Amino acid sequence: MLIGSGVAQAHQPVVLLDSDTTAAKGPLLTDGTVSYAIRASFTKSGQKKAFRAQLNAGDALSVQYLIVDKKPENALRTSALPRLVITSPTGTSVTVNLNERVKFYEPFSKVNYLYLSRYSAVAKAGVYSFTITSKGKAEITVAVGDKEIAGEVLRGTKPTPTSTTSPTPTPTPSASTSGYTMAQVKANNSAKSCWAVIDGFVYNLTTWINSHPGGAGAIVSLCGTDATAAFKYQHANQGKPAAKLDSFRLGALSQ
């Protein structure tokens, strides 16, 4: 959960990968009104990471730019932080102005954050592009949307959520439009087929079992379960494990 405008919101985490260099290559949020926390980390100046969000005409486009309130991020000058540009379906672009530095404490992950900007507009119908360009080493979070429901994230080159390209790394049974069920997760509860739920999304961890640096047993114990607490206990706020996990995503857990 992240706290915005005095209201607690549950933002589903999405980690941008090094390969997400353009909006077309980055993940697509199939409903940009659902709350997501897009995490981007950079090691040097000039790097780009991007993503997309589908919105309907009249939807509320709600975006927040955040950093963790600790060094080195909170010690960086505003001019040294990555630049965020939002491009509408009609091609109009807006550069997000970093015009505040408001502290707040997020109790779920026990992390202090800083709001640097909050942007809102009435959306046009279509896909919005979000491009983040670094000015040096830094990590930021871009929060999009405010509906506390499970959302779907697609990866691939197709610009709309009608893509038939599977976002999974290996062939798996198809999910319904409402997502995967907990019954399906529980049925895949062994090393031969290992699914787990983390933060409202279903992951196929089968191929990761024998490659996990901490040993196969740590992953096998998660098979067929909601592993949210276990993952956050081991890897809270760690970009590399979150990015690796994202590569095994099947889709949203149905409610």
Automatic annotation (TrEMBL):
Q: Which organism is it from?
A: freshwater metagenome
Where in this chain does the record put each Cytochrome b5 heme-binding domain?
A: 177-254
- Could you state a single Gene Ontology molecular function term? metal ion binding
> Among its keywords, does the record have Heme?
yes
What's the protein name? Unannotated protein
Supply the alphabetized keyword list.
Heme, Iron, Metal-binding
Keyword Heme, does the record have it?
A: yes
- Signal peptide position in this chain? none
A GO cellular component annotation here is: membrane
Stored PANTHER family = CYTOCHROME B5, CYTOCHROME B5 TYPE B
Compositional bias of type Low complexity: which residue ranges? 159-178
Q: Extract the ranges annotated as region (Disordered).
A: 155-179
Q: Which family does it belong to?
A: Belongs to the cytochrome b5 family.
